[in-house]
Amino acid sequence: MRTGTLIAVLLAVLVAANSMFVVREGQTAILLQFGRIVRTDFKPGLHFRIPLVQQVQRFDKRVLTLDSAPERYLTSEKKDVNIDFFVKWRITDAGKFFVAAAGNESNAQTLVVPIVKEGLRTAINSRTLQELVSGGRADVTQHLVSDANAKTQGFGIDVIDLRIKRIDLPEDGTVIGSVYDRMKSERKKVASKLRAEGEEQARTIKADADRQVQVIKAEAYRDAQKTRGEGDAAASQIYASAYGRDAEFYAFYRSLEAYREAFSTSNGTLVLDPKSEFLHYLQDSK
């Protein structure tokens, strides 16, 4: 009797344990009965089910990330570009998600990726490479999010954001070479412009410096001539004042200056009349 009671208690505990399940915070769940969905509105907490008859499928309702491998696309000018992107998405309707993707996140990614790639290919085909790189990336992603949500309404998911991580030029194409050539040409053009502007400024600075030099020299020469003239005038005035006091001494001094100039060379010859006025002070000591 005790053994039967123990077995009954154990069975009851086992049935009770199997009839309860927990939905954690950040999860959502659906209840299946013989493969058919009977309930989808489970909130976090403790819930009950019929053991062996009903099964529980739990899903992550947090924001999930879908990463895509780089793929080649063509721009409107028929240039190859390698683009990779990532998608932020989450499950909004667990029932639709279970029906569309069998409750598998990998299956959901398989459904979403082709939709995003198709929209991305259409957007890139209508834009040039410069538009994509300069500012068209934000417009492309914004349009792709709305387009992806419109096409995945029946999947029970919501595409929150889509971002292009990188836009590369394929190494095996001719685009890199043409881009490098264009960049080189643009840099040469800018360098030539800067060099021409520098040479023009150098000529302007040099011409201005030469003009300033000429002005400074002219002003210095003018000031020198003025100073020299003033000095000569002052000297003449001093000489005239000094010589005017004694005319005889002045005549004597001038004769001595003439003698010094005449006899300054050692091998010179001077032929004069002994009674010449030039020799006046040599003849008449008085």
* Average pLDDT: 81
The description of the largest β-sheet is: 4 strands, antiparallel
Task: Give the N-to-C terminal Cα separation.
Answer: 181 Å
Could you state the CATH homologous superfamily of the largest domain? Band 7 domain
CATH topology of the largest domain: Tetrahydropterin Synthase, Chain A
The whole-angstrom Rg is 55 Å
In terms of DSSP E residues, the strand content is 15-25%
Helix content: 55-70%
Quickly give the structural class: alpha+beta
CATH architecture of the largest domain: 2-Layer Sandwich
Secondary structure tally, helices: 7
CATH class category label of the largest domain: Alpha Beta
Strand count? 9
Shape: rod-shaped
| Order of helix and strand elements from N to C terminus | HEEEEEEEEHHHEHHH
Low-pLDDT runs: none
Task: State the domain count.
Answer: 4
